[in-house]
Amino acid sequence: MTYLEKTITSLEVAEMVGKEHYDVMKDIRRIIGHLGEGTSSVTYFIDSEYVDLQGKKRPAFNLTKKGCELYSTRMTGEKGTQFAVAYIDRFNKMENHIKKQNDQLPMSNTKLLLETALKHEEEIEEIKTDVSYLKDSMRVSGVEEKHLQDKGKKAVMNAVGGYKSNAYKKISRKVFSEIWRDFKNHFIIPRYNELPKKRYEDGMKFLDMWQPSTSLRIEIEELNNQQEFKELA
């Protein structure tokens, strides 16, 4: 249990006394000013900070038990009594927690071993998290990208009827554009080669099953029929 854990924050004080945190901060700064240069304020109030809802760092204080006692002298009536009860109860709970930990770990070497084991476990979890993140963020390799490209090309060739078809000569670029647009939309990626590595098999399956849109199939059929008609004529 560290020294700062034996304090309560100015945010908690604001909640206890039913005031805005800004006003509690002004009260504390005013008290510090009254202490004068001969008295160290750090035994009462410790500079701190917190992160607000917008992710910005804001100033705060950590109050020691003495700090809470000093702050309570500035309050009178029911609110002062309620605050005194709240902070006394809070510090008693912290002291009981410390005592309980000490009772459970009476030998300093045992405590050190447990702390070391906990730190080791935390490091392992961090490594696991990093590995998991890398797996999730890795995109397909160059070889896998080539396989996807070849699979997409094959799907387009099947759709237009081969290299020699009229549809391939006239609108192959349009068909290629559609297959990769459908691919990117399906996997929600900006470029087909940014497909996550873990979804490579899904990508290959998508290209195996892909078919042009109805309007594009009709256009392909009409172009190829025109070619057959010309050859017959």
Give the helix tally: 9
Point out poorly predicted stretches.
none
The largest pleated sheet is described as: 3 strands, antiparallel
Helices and strands, in order, run as: EHHEEHHHHHHH
Count the E strands.
3
Shape: elongated
> For the CA atoms, what is the radius of gyration?
35 Å
Through-space gap between termini: 94 Å
What structural class results from the helix and strand content? Answer: mainly alpha
Strand order of the largest sheet: 1-3-2
- Helix content range of the residues, please? 55-70%
Number of domains: 3
Name the beta content range: 5-15%
What is the average per-residue confidence, as pLDDT, rounded to a whole number? 82
General description of the model:
With 233 residues, the chain is mostly helical. The chain has three domains: 3-104, no CATH class; 106-137; 142-232, no CATH class. It is built from nine helices and three strands, in the order E-H-H-E-E-H-H-H-H-H-H-H. It has helices at 10-17, 21-35, 65-72, 77-104, 108-137, 142-160, 166-187, 200-209, 214-232; strands spanning 8-9, 45-51, 57-63. The radius of gyration is 35 Å and the shape is elongated. The termini are far apart.
SSE diagram, text form:
Layout: E1 8-9, H1 10-17, H2 21-35, E2 45-51, E3 57-63, H3 65-72, H4 77-104, H5 108-137, H6 142-160, H7 166-187, H8 200-209, H9 214-232
Antiparallel strand pairs: 1-3, 2-3
Helix pairs in contact: 1-2, 3-4, 6-7, 6-8, 7-9
